[in-house]
Design brief:
The chain is mostly beta strands. 10% of the residues lie in helices and 33% in strands.
Length: 243
């Protein structure tokens, strides 16, 4: 009888796990990739007007964060990223300014969420090491390396269209208060949209990566310095929302 109960429990747990990682883009585990960034599943689904960004890895999600170097210049950012086919204008950037991506990041050497106190200590400028979310606009730049991406820089003297929660950095980045939730092998973020239909019609991919702040703090300011893994293998954005 006990064996039967154990079998039923295992089946239930397996079913729950399978449901948690169904749909989206499935990727094979890769021992060459550090487990906290070894993507095995990425997905975007919607509930009402909320989009749910989900990523699972072969290890413990969020377990690895960058080492502190003591200054912003030359520092590192670790990230879980969902590049999308959404127009940057959907979240308040200039249309056709690059690839709109949603990202969950950690970087102990600077804080780029000046409107929010993530660690609850009453200070707004000391919690960049905690995982938090951004919208960023990406484009290729040879200055970052052959075929490498960067967060789009804002040229001096220009005033592009920017989201209300733009943190003031000279790049196309938004710092909304959408908090990531880590649970064992997964990270999820719930993001509300005015027009959820636009999201439902979009495609996406999943990426884990490191970015580096330029030592000169000048264009390009923030380059993708290391791609740990791409869910699709080729950044073709094959994922379909709610599929």
């Amino acid at each position: 009888m006990q064996t039967f109960k154990t079998a039923i429990l295992c089946a239930a747990l397996f079913a729950g796990s399978a449901f948690a990682h169904e749909g989206g883009i499935a990727s094979k585990a890769d021992k060459a990739v550090k487990a906290p960034f070894d993507i095995v599943h990425s997905r975007i689904t919607t509930e009402g007007n909320v989009a749910i960004f989900h990523m699972a890895v072969s290890g413990k999600a969020g377990a690895s964060r960058p080492s502190k170097v003591g200054k912003m210049a030359g520092s590192t950012v670790f990230s879980y990223v969902w590049p999308t086919s959404l127009a940057p204008s959907v979240v308040g950037f200039e249309p056709k300014s690059g690839i709109l991506a949603f990202a969950v990041t950690s970087h102990p050497d600077f804080d780029d969420t000046p409107l929010y106190d993530e660690n609850g200590d009453g200070k707004l400028d000391n919690d960049g090491d905690l995982w938090h979310s951004h919208w960023v606009v990406l484009t290729k730049d040879a200055a970052c390396g052959k075929g490498a991406l960067k967060v789009v820089d804002i040229p001096g003297g220009t005033e592009p269209r920017l989201p209300k929660t733009w943190p003031g950095a000279p790049i196309l980045i938004d710092s909304p208060a959408w908090s990531p939730v880590f649970s064992k092998d997964s990270v999820e973020v719930r993001v509300p949209f005015d027009d959820i239909g636009v999201v439902q019609a979009s495609t996406f991919d999943g990426v884990t990566s490191a970015l580096r702040v330029n030592a000169s703090m000048h264009n390009p300011l923030l380059c993708v310095s290391d791609v740990f893994k791409v869910a699709s293998g080729d950044l073709s954005l094959p994922g379909k929302v709610n599929h």
